[in-house]
Design a protein that fits this description.
This protein is an alpha/beta fold. Helices cover 46% and strands 16% of the residues. It has a seven-stranded mixed β-sheet with strand order 1-2-9-6-5-3-4, sandwiched between helices. The chain is globular. The structure holds nicotinamide-adenine-dinucleotide and zinc ion (ZN). Zinc ion binds next to helix 10.
Length: 364
């Protein structure tokens, strides 16, 4: 079994933090906390799907280390990612008489991480925060970078704050219970990372995809560590999302539109898979990549069990939705494209006619 990896995230003036990817670390979280963020109590924010499994292991680990856990459980699912469902979390944590030094741990997927992080950012104007992600998506994406927040009726993630974690504890073993569709959703972000940053790792992933799908323990630890590192390096270079962090949006301009027009019947990962397919199509039409590269992209997405076609949504509705994306600047849609596998470029001059053909290509 792999001993795991430590990825340090440097934050310039602020103190950085470590991402620990290690099988079994969930059971060692109490010890880690005692050494790194000593406190008699710790808040745990989790959701109704993982509270009795991974949440319980975490709180037992804290108790064993002499730390009293204060556990707040949010009902699972994106539809509960709002202030309404955060209020009882505040009530519970504040009534436990915590201090500025009391850490808050979020154990769950990206919803719990974003909500727990926002609670940590705002309770007593900020308490130490630790991410304990339990979905692949949260491990390689949502738990890293310091973006926290909740949704509002007016849109997703509209209320939030940047609040960096003091540590990210990743136990690949927790993925054993993750439903396959959620697992594949995370794989879409892993494919994205290699496409924008790492051609060699993309080639490795082409070979390893069956071991990954089979949740081979070593393959998972390597996959998570590699992808957490890519996300960490990108956010390190651009902590407040002013420049190159935009590359992480590859496949997401098309993807967000598909996700929203489908009324969220496509998952985020499925939408991003379709979005990456469309972005690869545009990259090919603009002669930034060749046809064999485009076909490799389509193939790995399919081998990961994600969609690259079969879209039955209205094309004009999707192109219209893209114009409302947060990332639109001065009316121009900025697309992240590829000028080779492993290399991202941002372009704001993609003709609307080509955008439309790219979406149409997903209908096949
Ligand atoms: N902060 C960021 O930078 C960032 C980046 C990407 C996404 N996000 C956010 O992350 C959220 C999506 O994250 P997600 O895909 O993890 O969704 P999620 O948190 O809803 O988790 C997906 C489902 O899996 C369940 N689950 C979690 N871990 C499990 C496990 N080990 N075993 C069994 N079930 C488990 C959850 O209860 C939920 O039902 C979105 O709200 C998105 O906005 C944030
Ligand atoms: Zn995404």
């Amino acid at each position: 079994m792999s001993a795991g990896e430590v990825i340090h995230v440097n934050l310039g003036d602020q103190h950085g933090y470590d991402i620990l990817v290690r099988p079994g670390i969930l059971r060692q979280a109490g010890e880690w906390l005692r050494e790194n963020l000593p406190s008699g109590k710790a808040a745990i924010v989790t959701d109704s799907n993982v509270a009795d499994t991974h949440g319980k292991v975490l709180s037992e680990s804290l108790s064993a280390a002499g730390i009293t856990p204060i556990v707040a459980v949010i009902p699972a699912g994106e539809k509960h990612k709002n202030l309404h469902h955060l209020l009882p979390v505040y009530d519970q944590i504040l009534s436990a008489k915590i201090e500025r030094s009391t850490p808050l741990l979020a154990v769950g997927g990206g919803v719990v991480g974003d909500m727990g992080g926002f609670a940590a950012a705002t309770i007593l104007r900020g308490i130490p925060f630790v991410q304990v992600p339990t979905t692949l998506l949260a491990m390689v994406d949502a738990s890293i970078g310091g973006k926290t927040g909740v949704d509002h009726a007016a849109g997703k993630n509209l209320i939030g704050a940047f609040w960096q974690p003091r540590g990210v504890l990743i136990d690949p073993g927790v993925l054993a219970t993750l439903p396959p569709r959620e697992f594949r959703s995370g794989l879409a972000e892993c494919i994205k990372h290699n496409l924008i940053r790492d051609a060699a790792a993309f080639a490795e992933m082409e070979k390893d995809i069956d071991r990954i799908i089979g949740k081979d323990a070593d393959a998972l630890t390597d996959l998570i560590a590699h992808n957490a590192r890519i996300k960490a390096r990108v956010v390190e270079a651009d902590p407040l999302e002013k420049g190159e962090r935009a590359h992480l949006n590859f496949g997401h301009t098309f993807g967000h539109a598909i996700e929203s027009v489908s009324g969220f019947s496509y998952s985020h990962g499925e939408s991003v898979a379709l979005g990456m397919t469309a972005a690869a199509f545009v990259s090919r039409e603009l002669k930034l990549i060749d046809e064999p590269s485009r076909l490799r992209i389509v193939k790995i997405i399919q081998n990961a069990g994600l969609p690259t076609g079969g879209l039955s949504l209205d094309v004009p509705e999707i192109t219209a939705a893209m114009k409302f994306d947060k990332k639109v600047k001065a009316g121009k849609i900025r697309f992240v494209l590829l000028d080779g596998i492993g290399r991202a470029v941002v372009r704001d001059d993609v003709p609307p006619e080509l955008v439309q053909r790219a979406v149409e290509s997903l209908r096949g």
